[in-house]
Amino acid sequence: MAQKIVAGNWKMNLTAVEAKELVKELESMEVPKDVDRIIFPSTLYVKPIQELNIPKLRVGVQNFSENEMGAFTGELAIEQLQSVKINLGLIGHSERRMILGETNEQLKNKVNTALKHSFKFIFCCGEPLDVREAGKEFDYVKQQLEESLFHLSSAQMRQRIIAYEPVWAIGTGKTATAEQAEEMHKAIRSWLTEKYNKVVAESVSILYGGSCKPSNAEELFSCSNVDGGLIGGASLKADDFMAIVNSFPK
Ligand code: PGA
Fold it and tell me: Which of 23, 85, 216, 228 could staple 5 via S-S, CB 3.0–4.6 A?
């Protein structure tokens, strides 16, 4: 069975004081034993939050460079992150793909650099609105996975984390229905079974992201192929985020 995970992507939000307050609230709230709780704050805050050693709160970065250390102004190398004990990051969030032009090829390089350093990651995929309207969402997401992630060996793919985030549902208030989410998650699981095997496919956590909130998390998490969520807006409020963390079927 895949690990249940709820991760909060804070994006470029919160001042240091606000981040501290949010973390304090998260610290006081209990997390179900079988759920992993992760947050991705601004890189500036990752280290100080990590140093608080809050039980069941893993912390990672929203982005890192595909390059090794060197002349890349403004970038962060995995070796630098690991030198301060940060060992987890997002790869390929749609805002980086769409706004900053990250390509499948570049993301494959990030995956490879992460593998080389045993750096853990959540790999994000998802189709934009025009692709869904054209009925091409399955081809599109499959291509993203094939071009950036499916070159991993079976051993490397085991227990990885994939986040399916339809771009049209991110920050728009427009959630994919539970049926739409389950349909894509099921397809991702079947591609993993075809490419690898059933054991590997069932060990991969597939998270849903895109306007996931306390009011719809329970329905989404009750789908058999949805192993949790990657939460944007609703992760900025401790009560909402923790309500989502507690939304798995009992
Ligand atoms: P949202 O963002 O929950 O605000 O839609 C999700 C994400 O971008 O990861």
Answer: 228
Could you tell me the distance, in angstroms and rounded to a whole number, from the CA of residue 178 to the centre of ligand 1?
16
Report d(CA 11, CA 209) in Å as an integer: 13
Ligand 1, atom 3, residue with closest C-alpha: 232
CA–centroid distance, 96 to ligand 1, in Å, is 13
86 is written with which tokens? Answer: 């940060």
Q: What's the chain's length in residues?
A: 250
Rounded Cα gap, residues 3 and 241, in angstroms: 18
CB-defined site of ligand 1, < 6 Å: 9, 165, 170-171, 209-212, 230-234
Rounded (10°) CA dihedral 186, 189, 194, 199: -130
**Are the CB atoms for 132 and 167 separated by under 8 Å?**
no
93-146 pLDDT per residue, tens:
999 999 999 999 999 999 999 999 999 999 999 999 999 999 999 999 999 999
Residue 240 CA to ligand 1 centre (angstroms): 13
Q: What is the 3-state secondary structure (H, E, C) of 146-166?
A: HHHCCCCCHHHHCCCEEEECC
- pLDDT tens track for 60-81: 999 999 999 999 999 999 999 9
**93 classed as catalytic:** yes
Answer for the pair 195, 150: CB distance below 8 angstroms, yes or no. Answer: yes
d(CA 15, CA 30): 25
